[in-house]
Design brief:
The complex is a heterodimer of chains A (125) and B (267). In chain A, 26% of the residues lie in helices and 22% in strands. Chain A is α+β, with helices and mostly antiparallel strands and 125 residues long. In chain A, α1 crosses α3. The longest helix of chain A is centred in the first third of the chain and has 11 residues, at 12-22. Chain A starts with a strand and ends in a 5-residue tail after the last strand. The relative contact order of chain A is 0.28. Chain B has one domain: Jelly Rolls. Chain B is built from one helix and 18 strands. In chain B, strands 1, 2, 6, 7, 9, 14, 15, 16 and 18 form a nine-stranded antiparallel β-sheet that branches. A nine-stranded antiparallel β-sheet of chain B has the order 3-4-5-8-17-10-11-12-13, with no helix packed on it. Classes of the chains: A alpha+beta (125), B mainly beta (267).
Chain lengths: 125, 267
C-alpha cells in the first residue's frame, strides 16, 4: 500500500531520525527535506510517499530499536521516539496538523496530500 | 522569442524504423549521454549500491544503469524517494509519485557539445500549471536543458534549452491527462533552434536560445528538478535516451519508433 506522510517543519529533524530507524541506512536522513507543502493556515510541511508492506504500520508504532548498521550512533533514538509519539496513521486522508507527523494511505499521493488540506508551494533554489 | 513552423509540421516521419535499430547507435564514436531502459531488468537495482536486483513489479529502484556505454548510472540513496518498477500488459516502466521520487546521475559532461537530443516514453498523470521535470540537466543556471510535463500552464508539456544568456522553451498546450506519449526535444545552441516533438510530429520549433555556448557538466536528474527538492514528475517513464548531439531525421524516427513500442503508443 502507498503511504503518504506530511511532516511539519518543527518535526523534520526528528522525523528523519525515525526514517533512518524504519528505513535502510543513513541516507534516509534526507527523507524530509523541502518544505513544499502548505496548509490553509500557512504552516509548511515536507512530504514523503512510498510503497510499504501491510506490516509497516505495526512496525512503525512498535518499540523502536537502533538499526544494526548504526554502529556510530548517528541516529538520535530520542528524536526518533519523539517523532513516533507524534505519528498519526490513517487509512483515509485526514487533515495534516502542524504538531503531528500525519501518515495516510492512498494510491494517489498527490490526491492524498490534497485531501489532507495541503497545497504545493514552489521552493526557490 | 518567436515560434516558427516547420515544413514537417503535421507529418509523421517518412523514414520509419530501421531494421535492428538500437539506441546504442546514437552514442557511437564516444557521444556523451545516457540511455535508460526499464524493460531491461539487468539494469535495475532496488538499492543505490546496486547489490539487490529488481526482480518483480512493485519493487523500488535505487539504481538504474546507463546503457549508452558512458557509465552515467542514476541512483537514489533515500529509500522513500525511489521510483517504483512496474510491469503490465507487456510494458515496463518506472512510476514516479509526484511527491518525492527522483533518481540522479553524477555529472554528465556535455561541455564538448552545443547540441542535444532528448527522447522519452512517458505517461503524465497530471499536467497542472506547475513545472514538472521528466528530466533536467543542470538547473543552476544557463547551458542547460529539460523535458517537462507540465511546463507552466495547464495541459502543457515542454522542452527547454538554455545558452550562455537565454532560455528557450518549446511547448505544446491543450493536452489532457493521462497523457501517454513519446516526447522528444532537440536543441542546437549554434543555430539556434529548439524543437519539441510528440508522437512523431513536430509540435513547436523556437528560434533560440541565442547566446551560444555549450551545455554544462552537471547531474542529470530524472523525475524532479536538480537538487531533488521540487518540480516532481507524477507519471510513468518507459524509457529515456539522451545523446549529446543533434539526432538526424532518420535517428529521430527510429528512436521514437523504438520508444513507442516500449510505451504502448502508436505513432
Amino acid at each position: 500500500m502507498r503511504l503518504t506522510i506530511a511532516c511539519p517543519d518543527a518535526l523534520r529533524d526528528d522525523a528523519n531520525d525515525l526514517a533512518m530507524v524504519l528505513g535502510f541506512g543513513p541516507d534516509d536522513a534526507l527523507t524530509y527535506v523541502a518544505l513544499n507543502w502548505q496548509d490553509e493556515d500557512g504552516n509548511l510541511y515536507a512530504a514523503a510517499s512510498l510503497d510499504v508492506p501491510e506490516a509497516f504500520t505495526t512496525t512503525a508504532q512498535s518499540g523502536l530499536q537502533r538499526p544494526a548498521w548504526d554502529t556510530d550512533n548517528a541516529i538520535s533514538m530520542a528524536a526518533a521516539n519523539r517523532a513516533q509519539a507524534a505519528l498519526v496513521f490513517s487509512l483515509t486522508p485526514v487533515t495534516a496538523m502542524p504538531e503531528k507527523l500525519t501518515a495516510c494511505v492512498g494510491d494517489d499521493a498527490l490526491a492524498t496530500l490534497a485531501a489532507m488540506g495541503l497545497v504545493q508551494v514552489e521552493v526557490h533554489l | 522569442m518567436r515560434s516558427v513552423g516547420s515544413p514537417l509540421d503535421g507529418f509523421g516521419s517518412p523514414f520509419g524504423t530501421r531494421r535492428g535499430f538500437s539506441p546504442a547507435s546514437l552514442f557511437a564514436g564516444g557521444t556523451e549521454g545516457a540511455w535508460y531502459d526499464p524493460s531491461d531488468l539487468t539494469t535495475l537495482f532496488q538499492d543505490s549500491a546496486g547489490t539487490t536486483p529488481v526482480t518483480a513489479s512493485g519493487q523500488p529502484v535505487g539504481k538504474m544503469l546507463d546503457k549508452s556505454g558512458n557509465g552515467n548510472h542514476a541512483v537514489q540513496a533515500t529509500s522513500a524517494k525511489r521510483p517504483t518498477y512496474t510491469a503490465g500488459s507487456g510494458l515496463h516502466w518506472l512510476a514516479f509519485d509526484g511527491v518525492d521520487d527522483a533518481i540522479v546521475t553524477g555529472d554528465v559532461d556535455f561541455t564538448g557539445t552545443d547540441k542535444v537530443s532528448v527522447f522519452a516514453g512517458l505517461q503524465a498523470n497530471v499536467l497542472t500549471n506547475a513545472i514538472s521535470m521528466v528530466a533536467i540537466h543542470n538547473s543552476t543556471g544557463f547551458n542547460a536543458f529539460s523535458l517537462r510535463a507540465g511546463s507552466g500552464a495547464n495541459g502543457t508539456i515542454g522542452f527547454s534549452a538554455s545558452s550562455n544568456t537565454e532560455i528557450s522553451n518549446a511547448t505544446e498546450s491543450g493536452l489532457s491527462v493521462p497523457l501517454l506519449a513519446v516526447t522528444s526535444g532537440t536543441s542546437d545552441l549554434a543555430s539556434p533552434v529548439t524543437t519539441l516533438r510528440r508522437n512523431g510530429v513536430v509540435r513547436t520549433t523556437n528560434v533560440g536560445p541565442v547566446g551560444g555556448g555549450n551545455f554544462a557538466a552537471s547531474a542529470l536528474t530524472i523525475g524532479s528538478d536538480s537538487g531533488m527538492l521540487r518540480r516532481f514528475f507524477y507519471g510513468n517513464l518507459y524509457g529515456l535516451i539522451i545523446p549529446g548531439k543533434l539526432a538526424s531525421p532518420a535517428e529521430i524516427a527510429s528512436t521514437e519508433a523504438y520508444l513507442a513500442a516500449k510505451t504502448g503508443v502508436t505513432l
